[in-house]
Specification:
By secondary structure, the protein is an alpha+beta fold. The chain folds into three domains: 301 residues, FAD/NAD(P)-binding domain; 97 residues, no CATH class; 154 residues, Sandwich (Jelly Rolls), CATH 2.60.120.260. It has 13 helices and 24 strands. Strands 1, 2, 3, 4, 5, 6 and 17 form a seven-stranded mixed beta sheet that branches. Strands 18, 19, 20, 21, 22, 23 and 24 form a seven-stranded antiparallel beta sheet that branches. Strands 7-12 form a two-stranded antiparallel ribbon. The longest helix is centred in the middle third of the chain and has 22 residues. It is globular and about 80 Å long. The mean pLDDT is 96. The structure holds flavin-adenine dinucleotide.
């Protein structure tokens, strides 16, 4: 008889994999009332962003941050909440604190059950639907059979989808397969390789390094195109190098153990070269941490209801079922990695426009109730080369979690969501309400009482008028007037030029003009008028209000991510709230001719704040937001106000 204990569990949505896609998917659905079980095979959440791997999260901000008040491409919603939480509560940039914050966010949700150290190992399909998954937790000798109405594969490797025979794409499609100019002429089975990262520290005395005999030996020529020890970038000595890449010519799932061993030999060989052969003055530097879990870039990509392609990205094709957006360059790497020293470690093809990611790329084509989110979504190798970055994966995760929650409420199966324009509209509107950004989709929420109010303010700047809190968009994405000033469309070459010359070059990625409403889309009080500054919404006939939602400015044009790289972090407002953000405020309601304080907030640093009252406030004739302090800026900024009864 087996000593393993069997458990039967049930939920509405089973999320397999707790990387950034899975965490955001699970949180989004749970917050909308869905009973969620999140199964994560590791002890910590975050996937490649976790303390086990330590990759920093990037997204549509790309390699060059945006321009204030014209290009705010950093993702909103849950990933922004996480970034702001990390920026304020993790000034020390501890990788473990990131794990803890993700854990804390999941633990705070009563509808979310988190199973850590638990691996999805199988699933049962009947009549075109997954009925349950089987998951194992060896540390406690437990096995779970988890039934659910819907399933989301956020495992990166696509283990759940592969178990239930969802068709997969692997390797690189040839040019002819999808008409992609960036694809190789002939397709092959090669993928992007994996990487082991490290951290090093400078000490107050020499720290010799003696390499084990099995490390790889390197020559200076191996690094002609792979810079290290550069300040002001993510190529310093304190944090490993993403270009230490290898394994793309093997199977990144099946050969993962061999890939780890070889990556350790390569990484320590490179450290040995830096320490003992490079001629750099690094005598006081020593390794502090080295990963034992390879960061995986690519393995399976599923075939969904739509396969996202190069042309969808390049032309910023508008999808009626958009649930997220991307903007990172099409970032291609030689599969041979460090074994191809004469090839650049990446070619980062600039995208002129932010692009839509449709829900159909996240829904299995051959099953009724399986979503995917993260690096395994339905995209060609070329499109995946942009969608794979973690803030984009997180935005897709939130989109899928939201779609699942609303589809469950509507009784619609994932395979049929794309056919229901009313459901798609409500999914998109819910995403906007939760501060996600969707290109060109404007707020149109019949339940929101704010648009029927007249908005005034104690003071306002030209272009930052009070009424803009109802502008139906919460960020500026039209882009700067002067767009391209870089030499080439390969962003990596611009990064190298920047390191060499110290001169910044930039190619921006903005919303396409036909879907970007120009303007600042926020109220900005007049600095000369000082604080407090007051924003007032007044209704012709009193309303009953039980929820007020505020969206504050958090500097979405800047980089913001937990990074172990000093140069990269120096470009951010790290270790503190973002200066634009309203810190202290109160809400007042005019009820029966009297102004009453209904909420007082001190020390805010979040972008989205929701204030709810158990009993609706009756007969509210007007609502007032009184901003008494910001986190640094000399005036108040508010991007949006919503009011619900
Ligand atoms: C070296 C490197 C550099 C990169 N550079 C960047 C960068 O600078 N910024 C950026 O944003 N992205 C970068 N990427 C890409 C990015 O890290 C990945 O594409 C991203 O992690 C994908 O997120 P995900 O949530 O889909 O998958 P993952 O991060 O892989 O998370 C999936 C999670 O699911 C878990 N899991 C797997 N199988 C199971 C199972 N059967 N049951 C339960 N759980 C399971 C895994 O343990 C993992 O925690 C880089 C990747 C690498 C490797």
């Amino acid at each position: 008889m087996s000593i393993v204990t069997e458990h039967s569990l049930a939920c509405d949505l089973l999320v397999a994999g707790g990387g950034m896609a899975g965490v955001c998917c699970a949180l989004a659905a749970a917050r909308l009332g869905t009973q969620v079980i999140l199964v994560q095979d590791r002890a910590v959440l975050g996937g490649n962003a976790s303390s086990e791997i330590r990759m920093h999260i990037v997204g549509a901000t790309g390699l060059h941050a945006g321009v204030p008040l014209s290009l705010e491409s950093r993702e909103g919603g849950i990933i922004e909440e996480i970034r702001l939480e990390l920026a304020v509560r993790n000034p020390q940039r501890s990788a473990a604190v990131c794990d803890l914050i993700l854990y804390e966010l999941c633990r705070a949700e009563p509808n979310l059950t988190l199973l850590l150290n638990t691996t999805v190992v199988g699933a049962r399909v009947e009549e075109g639907r997954i009925r349950h998954v089987v998951a194992e937790r060896p540390s406690t000798e437990d096995r779970f059979t988890i039934a659910a109405t819907m399933f989301a594969d956020c495992t990166g490797d696509g283990r759940l989808g592969a178990e239930v025979a969802v068709p997969v794409m692997r390797g690189r499609e040839g040019q002819a397969a999808f008409g992609e100019t960036l694809a190789p002429e002939e397709g092959d089975a090669k993928t992007l390789g994996s990487t082991i990262l490290f951290q090093a520290k400078q000490h107050d005395r020499p720290m010799p390094y003696v390499a084990p005999p099995w490390v790889r030996k390197f020559q200076p020529t191996d690094f002609a195109l792979r810079p290290f020890g550069k300040s002001g970038s993510d190529l310093g000595l304190e944090y490993g190098y993403w270009w230490i890449e290898w394994g793309g010519c093997l199977n990144t799932v099946k050969d993962n153990e061999d890939i780890r061993d070889e990556l350790l030999a390569i990484t320590l060989g490179i450290w040995n070269h830096i320490k003992n052969e490079s001629g750099l003055d690094v005598s006081h530097w020593a390794l502090d941490w080295i990963g034992m879990v390879p960061g995986k870039r690519e393995s399976r990509r599923f075939v969904g209801q739509h396969i996202l392609t190069e042309s969808d990205l390049m032309n910023s094709r508008a999808f009626p079922d958009a649930i997220a957006f991307g903007g990172w360059p099409i970032d291609l790497h030689p599969p041979e990695g460090v074994d191809a020293p004469t090839e650049a470690p990446c070619t980062q093809n600039h995208l002129r426009w932010l692009y839509d990611i449709p829900l159909r790329s996240c829904v299995a084509a051959n099953l009724e109730n399986l979503f995917f989110a993260g690096r395994n979504v339905s995209a060609t190798h070329i499109a995946f080369a942009s969608t794979r970055v973690m803030a984009t994966c997180a935005a897709v995760g939130q989109g899928v979690g939201t779609a699942a929650a609303l589809a469950l409420q509507a009784g619609v199966i994932p395979a049929e969501i794309a056919g229901s324009s009313a459901l798609l509209r409500s999914i998109q509107q819910r995403l906007l309400r939760d501060d996600a950004y969707l290109i060109g989709v404007r707020r149109a929420d019949a339940d929101d009482l704010a648009p029927s109010a007249v908005v005034t303010a104690s003071s306002e700047q030209a272009g930052g008028e009070a009424a803009l809190v109802l502008s139906a968009q919460t960020r500026a994405v039209h882009g700067p007037d002067v767009v391209a000033c870089a030499e080439t469309a390969n962003q990596w070459e611009n990064v190298l030029a920047e390191i060499a010359t110290g001169k910044a070059t930039a190619l921006y990625t903005s919303a396409p003009p036909d879907r970007a409403a120009p303007g600042l889309h926020r109220w900005m009080s007049e600095p000369a008028a000082g604080l407090p500054a007051t924003l007032e919404l007044r209704w012709a006939a009193p309303v009953a209000a039980s929820e007020v939602q505020l969206i504050f400015d958090t500097g979405l044009h800047r980089f913001l991510t937990l990074s172990q790289a000093d140069g990269y972090t120096a470009r951010m407002e790290w270790g503190r709230p973002q200066p634009e953000t309203v810190r202290d405020y109160r809400l007042e309601a005019k009820i029966g001719g009297e102004w009453r304080v209904i909420h007082t907030e001190v020390g805010n640093y979040q972008r989205r704040r929701v204030h709810r009252w158990a009993e609706p406030l009756p007969t509210v004739a007007a609502l007032r937001l009184v901003v008494t302090a910001t986190n640094g800026l000399d005036h108040a900024r508010v991007c949006e106000v919503r009011v619900y009864s």
